[in-house]
Amino acid sequence: MEAYARVRWNETLHPSRYDATAPGGLGSALASMRSEHGNDDKMALIVCLLYERYELGDRSAFAEYFRTMPGEFDTPTHWSDDTAKELRGSDTYEVDIVDEYKLLNTVWNALRVRVFDVYTDVFVGKAARSLYALRWAWTVAHARATRVSGKDGLALVPVIDMIRECGKDVDADKTDIVDDEGFAVYDPHADEVVVYAKRDYAPGEELCERFGGWNNGESVQHLGYLPDVHTNSTRNCVLMVLTPEKKRNEEKVRKAGFDVPWRVCVPSAASESSLDMLSAYAELASGRAVEIGGDGVPKNVRRDGVRDVLLARLKRYPTSLEQDDAALSTMRDSMREFAAALERDDMQLLERERVREKLRDMRRSALAVELRVREKTILNALIDRVAPAADELVKDEL
Question: How much is the pTM?
């Protein structure tokens, strides 16, 4: 297959582009950081981004490229507190996103101590030291950076970073389709980063790639959107971080091979064996015995407990699915009105900026509500699947 995208290596942003032997430069600072604190590819790229955009500014070779990016992204780290609270009830928010908020503050303090206060000849100004700057660099590193096969670390490759993820996913049953990892490759003969075509494309077809299969929660957290996935895709799942009801049950759970707490992303199309594992966890976490075979697979496990877990998980949301559907419909109507208003030529500049801000906030709120809708839809489907069949109910009564 031929390459459909090529970018010269010296036009990409990566830590190795800076001379480690030049005293007082970013390269020597990065080398010193690696020696003192160990190798951290993500943090190294974040420092490069802060240096290029906020220290060099218009003098950066990437200044024009940075101008093509938004100043603020739609990931939750850029949301207001009120908008982020729209995600309440979701473990994606209450565990991962809240932890990311805390981690960002920790990283911010660490950068001040390990970088800004130490390498004052590299970071002279104040712009790179702000939390706003870190949020921007953090999001770029998570959403746009890639590993280039044949090179070490993470790199930001202009043009290639704009290749969209494939919008349509496949059914979970179609196991012959596998997500591609590390789609960009270094060509040493041309000194270029290239992306090869995976198949023949039709004229006018949009080129897209699969980037490792982000699920619903990960896409919202790191990319700021929800993937347009097949209903039965394993990516269309709800994150649950589960802990035994009582501490005395933890050892029983661990002996059965589960982590405590147990992170699991469950799709509505989960296999029966996956539901058995989930059911086994629920039984063990409640202190009840489960028969585990020599292959580690639970046998004849009841599903009463897991149904209770799923129902309790569903009740954690402050709103019902019907309320969310109604709210989402209203939000989409408002977004259409705001977008139409921005098309008017007679709108004053200040009013235009206000409408843009309202549209941005409404778009973020709608994203939060849509995630809740997806998660509740999946939970309801799982509850239906683990509900006892009518003939089983008759047997229990007899």
Answer: 0.84
**Cβ–Cβ < 8 Å for 71, 136:** yes
Select the CATH number that applies to the domain covering 3-196 from these four: 3.40.50.2000, 3.90.1410.10, 3.40.640.10, 2.60.40.2550. Answer: 3.90.1410.10
Q: Scan for tokens 């200040």, then name that residue.
A: 350
3-state secondary structure (DSSP) of residue 241: strand
The count of other CB atoms within 10 Å of the CB of residue 56 is 15
State the residue for tokens 């790229």.
45
Please, what is the Cα angle at 222 between 220 and 226, to 5 degrees? 25
Domain with CATH 3.90.1410.10 in the chain: 3-196
Rounded mean pLDDT of 170-197? 67
Phi, psi of 147, deg, nearest 5: -90, 130
State the number of CA atoms in the 13 A half-sphere of 112 facing the CB: 11
Q: What would the pLDDT profile of 258-283 be if each residue is shown by its tens digit?
A: 999 999 999 999 999 999 999 999 99
Where are any strands of DSSP class E within the chain?
A: 3-8, 146-147, 154-155, 164-165, 184-187, 192-196, 208-209, 237-242, 262-267, 291-292, 298-299
Q: Residue 301 half-sphere exposure, CB side, CA atoms within 13 Å?
A: 28
Query: What is the spatial distance between Cα 242 and Cα 366, in angstroms, rounded to a whole number?
Result: 27
